[in-house]
Amino acid sequence: MDIKGRSVVVGVCGGIAAYKVVEVVSRLKKMGAEVDVIMTANAQKFVAPLTFRSLSHRPVVTDMFSDPEYWDIKHVSLAQKADLFIVAPATANIIGKLAAGIADDMLSTTLVATKAPVLIVPAMNHDMYSNAVVQRNIETLKELGYIFMEPDTGRMAEGSSGKGRLPEPSAIVEKAVSILKPARDLEGIRMIVTAGPTRENIDPVRYISNYSSGKMGYAVAQAAHERGADVLLISGPVELEGPDGVRLIRTSTAEEMEEAVLGNFENCDMVIMAAAVADYRPAEVSGTKIKKNDDEMVLRLRKNPDILKKLGTIKGNRTLVGFSAETDNLAENAAKKLESKNLDMIVANDVTMEGAGFGTDTNIVRMIKRDGTVVVLPLMSKLSVAHRILDEVRGMAAGSGQGSGNGQ
Ligand code: C5P
Questions:
Q1: Which pTM was predicted?
Q2: Which of 125, 131, 201, 210 is catalytic?
Q3: Residue 267, number of CB atoms within 10 A of its CB
């Protein structure tokens, strides 16, 4: 299973087994996951934050924040970006706090704020583990949808033997991968995804285009295929290879893209238009290379068809999702487009923000739904953003089930 680009947040607590979690982080990172580590104050007495930082290549979040504003932003953004949260070693303390809803440090606060699946890997002295209160807390959390791994039995750090050892790092990683495996919650959905720019010819050697790389749309197509959808990707000219298992139609101009989309629209349940379609094309395309005679030249442009707007007028019970790349008045402009194009959801991004928009592997988006609900996401990989978009639309498609949540 490919976990490349998926976001895993690892919460490390103060137990001797913290050193084994170094291996867990290292393995996840080698598999291509984006790993953020949060350490409790006690965890830092067992392993230095620098160890995790060196392996995850990201700053390690500790509790030592002097700036409460930063603290607040950080715990919310990590909670939101996680595709999976792992707590290892999970002490009796963090299990107790979580079961009681206590949020008094960075790790517990982030855990309370996350909607991601949480994998808890307890490791503690076997007398502590078998304590009735600890066991009751574990049962409470299991009932709420938290996922637990059983500790191993064997020799403990203090010399005695019993159940309470942290499972092997390979077993923890295997479990993590199985949780990250996308649910097949889009099975039976026929989906068109558009991606990339369009290219509007001026003459045989020149064209007008934009900086769209196609990465966002290709990520949506890949994620939807992984989740069982029957995906047709209609792409403008990009450098990317089509995701495995996805049918691909390559187009160049907006008019070609329109033809491909309309030709396949009847037999689809959902369209996600991530393509950056050029709004205008040269009014005349010269058959021969235009010569540079004058100091100035005027290029007359004609409006391209607005593909999505057209789909909005003939959508029936299909689900339509648009993208809105903005440089100003993001929310306002996006909401207007949702309305004018008759969409079910619009994914808006401010392309001027670092890490967002064209060309990057990451994006920062907000999703605005027809009912006015707004979901704001932090900086995330485009694949993770793609999964979040699909999480929002999975219940909308005609003929789909309502999709299952994480239980949390
Ligand atoms: O109006 P604006 O171009 O910002 O709208 C963006 C959304 O509309 C995107 O989903 C884009 O794919 C779609 N679009 C389209 N045809 C156009 C222009 C944009 O389908 N000519």
A1: 0.85
A2: 210
A3: 10
